[in-house]
Amino acid sequence: MVATILVGMLCAHLLCFALMFLLISKRLQGKRMGMDFFALGSLLLGFAYVLQLAEGGPAWSVMSVVNHTLTLAAPIAYWLGSMRFFGYAAPLWRPLIAFSVVYVLAQVLVQWSLGQAARYAMLAGISSLLFLGMTLTIIYGVRTFAKDLYAEMVIFALLISGICVLNAMKFMKILDGGLEALDMDSSFQMAFYIYMSSLATVIPPSIVWLVLRRLTDDLRDMAGRDPMTQLLNRRGLSEALKVFFNTRNPAPAHLLLMDVDHFKHINDTYGHQAGDTVLCHVADVVRNTARHGDLTGRIGGEEFVVICLDTDSAGVMRLAERVRAGIEEQAIDVAGTQHPLRCTVTIGVSRPFASTQALEGAMRDADAALYRGKEAGRNRIELPRTPHFHPDPHAGRATPCQRTPSEPAVLSDGSATHQQP
Ligand SMILES: Nc1nc2c(ncn2[C@@H]2O[C@H](COP(=O)(O)OP(=O)(O)OP(=O)(O)O)[C@@H](O)[C@H]2O)c(=O)[nH]1
């Protein structure tokens, strides 16, 4: 009687959570994070337990064959759903249908050749192996694709390994004592149902928690990035900087502020779309040239920023020169223009700064240097006005480049795009 109530509650939990997962997956639309797979898994397992209640005990019937197949199809759906959650494009129906057909045939074969107990032992054995596979996948995941969810994954691994152990024990018991081991009111089966009921209560809300975490992480990321170039925006820069300065003994940072030269003319001549292509190209060069760990951002129309972390003034100058030269050298293919475009940037360098609060000051510093660079002819790197800034004289071009103040940005075929007054 108690076992029947437990299994009944288990069914109710699973079917309710199936509905909840389905509603969540509808809400998530394009990015379902595997919630539709979890809905199906819960539905299949819920139905499997309904059939078990209807069956009452071990039997050789269509209901029993379907029950066993659903019992194993459910963890497969969960497994595939987890892959979806972590961004792998796992299919659902084909593997499930293929597995179900194979498993129905296997049941018929085992029932006829080895008998009823062997078929139930096969169910317990394969369940145990499936949950072992899941546990191992999670253990692999915490070292690779699920590093950011370490604590959650460890808890999942522990809970799921419990099902693996219980099914392995059931397998041994059936081999040892036959079908009597499956008596619903036996102490082992009671423990089994209590454990499964507890999991059915704990795991689905935990999965919802994971989805919530992913969604809030995505939102935070979106709020901190420029949608066009995917570089950090002001907010993203300042949050990343906060994290850096909260580490132990952080070195002072330097800020490079760069502005595309004569950008208005590119817009006016080739259109806004072409201007956007140029901005994306500049963003790519900045992103690919900065060192791993530096912060790269776009903080306004054609203004970009690199915050150099853990480097000295000489390193900052080398980086600034690499960015300046990289942008100057690379031609930009723009749809609708006969020749690729070229553009240049002027870069202002800040004094070193050592806190997030000092970011605004560093920005002003670099802006003043940038302004001087524009005045002095563009396509150059301008240093802060401070006696403490000592760039390595061999590190790159800290002096104005050869372009004259009136020289414009040009098309790669050599024609001018602008005449500076
Ligand atoms: N295509 C495009 N243009 C933008 C965007 N944001 C700002 N702009 C344009 O960028 C141009 C900036 O022009 P200015 O500030 O005059 O600077 P400039 O022409 O680059 O001149 P200097 O900086 O002095 O070399 C303006 O025409 C803005 O409309 C954007 O997201 N896309």
TrEMBL record:
InterPro entries reported in the protein's UniProt record = Diguanylate_Cyclase, GGDEF_dom, Nucleotide_cyclase, Rev_trsase/Diguanyl_cyclase
Spans annotated as Disordered = 377-421
- Enzyme Commission no: 2.7.7.65
Q: Which parts form a coiled-coil structure per UniProt? A: none
For this protein, the record's SMART domains field holds: GGDEF
Q: What class of enzyme is it?
A: transferase
Q: Where is the GGDEF domain?
A: 251-386
Keywords in alphabetical order: Membrane, Transmembrane, Transmembrane helix
Composition-biased stretches, type Basic and acidic residues, lie in: 377-395
Cite the SUPFAM superfamilies for this sequence. Answer: Nucleotide cyclase
Q: For this protein, what reaction is catalysed?
A: 2 GTP = 3',3'-c-di-GMP + 2 diphosphate
> One Pfam family from the UniProt entry?
GGDEF
Mark the transmembrane ranges: 6-25, 37-54, 60-80, 92-114, 120-142, 149-172, 192-212
NCBIfam families, from UniProt?
GGDEF
Q: What is this protein called?
A: diguanylate cyclase
Q: Which organism is it from?
A: Comamonas avium
Q: What is the lineage of its organism?
A: Bacteria, Pseudomonadati, Pseudomonadota, Betaproteobacteria, Burkholderiales
